[in-house]
Amino acid sequence: MENNNTNDHDITEVAAQQQSAVNENGFMTVINHSRIRPPFSVVCTTVLYCAEFICAAVLCSLYHKTDDVVWMGLSITFMLVPSVLTQLTLTFVHRDLGKDRPLVLFMHLLQMGPIIRCIEALIVYYQAGRKEEPYVTISRKIKLKHGRGLGPALEWEIGHSERKLAIHRNAFKRTAVIQAFLGSTPQLTLQLYATIQEKYIIPARFALMIISLISITYGALVCSVLAIQIKYDDYKVRMKPIAYLCMILWRGLEIATRITTLVLFSTVFTHWVVLVGLVNLFVFFFQPWVEFWARRASLPENVETNFSKLGTTVVLCMVTFLYACINIFCWSAVQLDLADHDLVEKQPRWRRLAIYYTLRFVENVSLIILWYHFKTDFYEYVCTPLLVVQLIVCYSLAVLFMLVFHQFCHPCRRLFHYNVEDCLQCACCWKKRQSLPPTDPEVASQDPAPPDLTSYLTERETDIVDDILDAA
After folding, report:
1. 39: in domain
2. How far is CA 374 from CA 320, 361, 408, 428, in A?
3. Is 464 inside any structural domain?
């Protein structure tokens, strides 16, 4: 067996040298380990958490000095609630309550759990590879080349250090999403609303708004990458830099436009915006449950060990609430399936994606037009028609970048049955056929039916072991 430090070869080169290693099950065994990647996601999530917490604390102290009790109370709420949920998530994933680790639990009580977890991940990374360690599991993936599956599934050994880092990455992915959509999103909305109402901006508030927007964009990016990895878990997925850039532009424009639209609408219709938010929340919260009850499915088993049906229901409600909060501001990139053990529907539905962005575009345009007609005198020094056009154009650009990503930058785009180009061509053909005069029914019946663009991606029948290492 080769040492862990001699793993610089590309996996395809190793596979080419070991054609005789294909076993009876059709898997090609790759003996050498893959190089352990640095925990960049862990460090990035920790930095965003600390930066946002510190900026919010400084801003709350300024609110206290100026006796802005309402702004201070809401800022503290949006700072502490996601922080407590983050500590509970990290403690739950690492199962600290069943271990004798008083220092770690004390750090979590001080809301410094991400810091101690980040230090642990860095220690594991720097100590990895110094001595050969036995593997704990085997990962099997199909190599993608030019967007298509290449040869038999490859399998390689997973050591203890890689497994520990994978647990850290998965835990921090959850905390990044929770922090983004249960903390950063309401915090950014609040501070932008306070800025408009007070008609001035302070440096601490501006810094908090920038950090919150970065945190939300990063959380949405994590959701998109996780959706790809869950739907194509039997493939070795690697994202290119251009794909990340396209997703950042897509998510950043979508979230910034949505929050700005809601805040502007709330400055004129303060109470009606609450109704808009609640309607969105209830629709996305009950949509997975309605589908669950319509199928007459049963609750998934073994969501977590030692969980009763009541505990499983509580966990599913929390997951559904987070799912609804994400969809209020941007596309969640995944669809919940409460009857499945993984809780995620792995077959993409293009129809839902089209319906979501169509309705969201109509809603944003309606809200911004209502604000434009009933705006106050405060905006007399702002070119409001230009602002309306900018918001509409920015959301249209977000949709455009989303289409570009799925058409050109998606790592598994060649595995789609139909892509964006096929949908557009089918729509054009349908309009052209509608404009033609009716033909003989007997002749028309001989024409092949148009492809069903909403059909699911067929399931892969390859038995693949779950891989927890493909965390971006």
Report:
1. yes
2. 35, 20, 42, 39
3. no
CA-derived radius of gyration, the chain? 25
Q: Domain for residue 61, yes or no?
A: yes
Number of domains in the chain: 2
> Which residues form the domain of 378?
240-436+448-458
443 inside domain: no
Give the pLDDT score at 167.
87
pTM: 0.80
Amino acid at site 397 = L
Considering the domain architecture, whether residues 273 and 245 belong to the same structural domain is answered as yes
Strands 344-345, 148-159: pairing is unpaired
d(CA 247, CA 405): 7
DSSP symbol at 90? H
Say yes or no: 150 and 294 in one domain.
no
4, 177, 183 from 74: Cα distances, Å? 51, 20, 11
Q: What is the pLDDT of residues 319-329, one digit of tens each?
A: 899 999 999 99
By CB atoms closer than 10 A (0-12, 13-18, 19+), residue 460 is: middle
| pLDDT of the residue at 458 | 36
Contacts of residue 397, Cβ cutoff 8 Å, sequence gap at least 6: 249, 253
